Amino acid sequence: MNKSKNFFRNLVKPFRSSSSNVGDNVEDLERIAQQEQKSFLFETLVAATKDFHSHHKLGEGGFGPVYRGKLDDGREIAVKKLSQNSSQGKKEFENEAKVLARVQHRNVVNLLGYCIHGDEKLLVYEYITNQSLDKVLFRHGLEISELDLIVTMVVVYSIEPSRKEELDWKRRYEIITGIARGLLYLHNDSHNRIIHRDIKASNILLDDKWVPKIADFGMARLFPEGETHVNTRVAGTKHKLYKKGKGMEIMDAAIASSAPSEQVAICIQIGLLCVQSDPKVRPDMHRVVIMLSKKHGHLEEPMRPGIPGTRYRRSRLPPGSSSTAPGASVFSDSNSSESTFNITTNTASASTSALASSSNPDPHGKLPMKS
Ligand SMILES: Nc1ncnc2c1ncn2[C@@H]1O[C@H](COP(=O)(O)OP(=O)(O)OP(=O)(O)O)[C@@H](O)[C@H]1O
Q: 64 and 117 share a domain?
């Protein structure tokens, strides 16, 4: 019997009621201890995903393929096999993964743990049953940028026709507020401040009750050299409908009659406030959550949104930067004003193209939007 088994046996001795259940108790404690460690055996993941069989492949993003699997205890998981282009060492990866596994919120995908096998690094997430938000949103012939601001998108875009009934205004509003709460948690309330840097519809997963869960958070911690995959595609040019007072015209017709117009207008305006090109004037997530909780009320006029590729968008860090350095994606200083900067940076560029009405916009965002 090895040392750890002895340790557990001694631990359960005082609680033992009969000799027959000692084995069970030891097994339970060992299982709990392993879960606490957050580390998965490679063999466990091989068994869960049927050796990473192609039938189990959910898709492949910028960080590598993702497989669906089922653990022996019945839990469904999604296993992300990280592509091996990170220079991060095993110990650092382990430390960072443990930090990320402590991030727990109703609106954030739970990272159950990690696995290191030779040169391979894997992340194990809870499996989220429904589709990602981008698959539910009907593209309407528009070239939607991956970076569209979620709030505005959920209000504006039509829904996949077969799912129209499912996504009424109430549900859309719950998705919007859920995402905002998840981001607020990542920014302010998790142990380490986490700035996502790649918020987009495909990174919002919906569970069987349509609760939105933010996926792919903290990837900059695992790819600290700054080569993180951040999509920079630009939005289509047809969607230039935003003009002061005409916001309602861009709304999905399917919900136009049932949605309270003030609430919809607030959502669109919050979206525009979040993508102003000057990061200093954008609301932080705390303020966004408060604004969303108001049914009516006056919000300030948004300034002109930023332009993709201008000075506020950043897709890579300087060589040698660490993920915890100032300007990187994770901050431990809860008073830092950088959170607004980064979180809106990536979404900003898209909404800019999607919503701006000017043909010659000011990249510095100092001009108020004109009607
Ligand atoms: N926890 C999960 N539960 C269910 N499906 C998931 C989970 N995580 C990822 N997926 C699915 O796996 C696929 C790949 O996801 P991944 O996050 O790697 O890439 P992506 O979001 O499509 O692209 P990108 O890397 O550009 O963000 C997507 O279809 C995604 O919906």
A: yes
Residue nearest to atom 2 of ligand 1 (CA): 127
Structure confidence by residue, pLDDT tens digits, 245-302: 555 666 777 777 777 888 888 888 888 788 777 888 888 889 989 988 876 566 677 6
- Active site positions, annotated: 198
Residue 110 belongs to a domain with what CATH number?
A: 3.30.200.20
pLDDT number for residue 369: 38
Tally of CB atoms within 10 A around 320: 9
| Cα dihedral sign, 282-359-235-174 | positive
Q: Note the pTM of the prediction, 2 decimals.
A: 0.72
Residue of 132, 137, 219 to test ligand 1 pocket, by largest number of atoms within 8 Å of CB: 132
Residue 320 alpha carbon to ligand 1 centre in Å:
28
Cα–Cα distance, 18 to 21 (Å, whole number)? 6
**Is 337 a domain residue?**
no
CB 332 within 8 A of CB 265: no
Q: CATH number for the domain including 227?
A: 1.10.510.10
- Residue 77's nearest CA partner among 89, 69, 85 is 69
Nearest to 59 by CA among 135, 147, 162, 164: 135
Domain boundary residue, one of 253, 276, 293:
293
Question: What confidence tens digit (pLDDT) does each residue in 297-331 have?
Answer: 666 776 666 554 444 443 333 333 333 222 222 22
**Ligand 1: distance of its center to the CA of 62 in Å?**
9
Range of the domain at 244: 169-293
Helix (H, G, I), strand (E, B) or coil at 112: strand
Q: Are residues 108 and 173 in the same domain?
A: no
Total domains, the chain: 2
Instruction: Give pLDDT tens digits for 37-63.
Output: 799 999 999 999 999 999 999 999 888
Single residue among 275, 293, 311 that ends a domain in this structure? 293
Which residues surround ligand 1 with Cβ inside 6 Å?
58-63, 66, 78, 80, 109, 125, 127-128, 132, 202-203, 205, 215-216, 229, 231
> Atom 15, ligand 1: which residue's CA is nearest?
61
